[in-house]
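[agent] plan:
  1. take the single chain provided in the ticket
  2. run structure prediction with default settings
  3. attach structure tokens to the ticket
  4. add a short note for the reviewer (M.T.)
[agent] executing step 1
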Amino acid sequence: MLYWLLKTVVLGPVLKVLFRPWVEGEEHIPDAGGVIFASNHLSFSDSIFLPLVVPRKMTFLAKADYFTGTGLKGRLTKMFFTGVGQLPVDRSGGRASSAALDAGLKVLRAGDILGLYPEGTRSPDGRLYKGKTGVARMAIEAGVPVVPVAMINTDKVQPTGTVIPKIQRVGIRFGAPLDFSRYAGLEEDRFVLRSATDEIMYSLMELSGQEYVDMYAAQMKDSLKAKKAGTTST
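[agent] step 2 finished; step 3 output follows
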């Protein structure tokens, strides 16, 4: 399988030598069964370094654009994202959100690991932003634990917009699994979903040491973009 070939033969050994990832909390990685790894999101490379240190296969929900390119570049991009365990989903909202939920639940019900970024997009400034409730909904509906994961220094290794990473150490810190079985059957209750999501984000804040911002990262990005456009036009 391409996933294991890239991880154990082609990319994995090289990345481990160059970036020397350190890991804390390995004992919190379950040996079997469906589980969600909920991570902060600092860099594109999060989806590469996190699976690198997890013994089991991980699947991420990735935007469908990565799989629809044309020509040689498009085929290579699709092959790479498939190889590193990415699953294409339309994240435009509405029915697409339901499709993403179904795709994630399928992974969890098969007893596998699903990697999710509750912030929904990369942090624009290194701070931790408000989590979206999809991660809590999947955990409650599938009846699986959530392992919080803090990625450390990946934004310094590969800042947004850069292609070639800088050679620095990265860290991955795993927290104790969060059990939401007390909410079984309440996956449609928005208050329950917000409470569970906030619990996940609090764990991520403690693990990562990031400053927490009570707004969505996408909103901050839009605000920064509008501010930049306003400055440019004056």
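[agent] step 4 note for reviewer: The longest helix spans residues 190-208.
[agent] ticket updated
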